[in-house]
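Lab notebook, bench 4. Still working through the backlog of constructs that have no structural model yet. Next entry is a single chain of 256 residues. Request: give me the structure tokens for it.
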Amino acid sequence: MVVVGLSAVSCGSAKKCDERSCASGCCDLTDVCRSGTTTAACGSRGSACAGCSAQLTCLALPDGIGGACSPPMAGGAGTGGGTASAGGSAGGAAGGTAGAGGGNGSAGGSAGGGAGCTGPCATTDLVARFGARLASFERAQHGVELDGRLHVEAHAGGDPACPTMTSPTPLRTLVISGLRPLTDGGVISFADGLRVSLLDFSGAVTSAPLERAIDARATARWVEPGTLVSFQLTATFDGGTLSGGFSAPHCPSLDP
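Model written out:
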């Protein structure tokens, strides 16, 4: 008996533009990576490019990751901020109470990690204050940069899963970058490279779509990069402040 082996032949070429190959922009319909900072092709981290409506402009995000469609900033365009991805950790649970001007949420670590981070260490209770307006963040997650520093995103609303190209836009996102892995009680400041940016998509506390902190300070509560990190954070903006803590499980999609 003769056995004839058949090999599958794939028609067409594999997709080349994705969140790995186009981390600095968006992918157009021809599978080409674009800058993601024009109104005709706006997007970030390898998401599908989209055109901004007539009422929106494509706001360039920091760190060269592309842009996001946002209302024009009063008085001119501004720079700074962070990624506008929604997310959380599939291995963590977000929740808590959402009271007036504040909330109390907790996020669990990846399976098998962060077991020693309990109580306040495991709680996300960040609150932004701009005048009489308050807004909370209910969950957070982190990625690890190539230089070992931590990139953290805290969110209110949106999808609690790790961010993808199709994640819905949250109500607001806080982007924390330049965090060094520290021992418990270690402190990192604005002078050390710590940066905090607020993207308020719902306009709950500020009419500007993007606010950058002018000062910030973070104190480590638990640092296990790639599993769970927890910090106490304070930040000062022009016209506002931020305070509280966050517990952030790891999201691989936030790694470079």
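Notes after review: Confidence is low (pLDDT under 50) at residues 1-12, 73-112. The longest strand covers residues 215-224. Flag for follow-up if needed.
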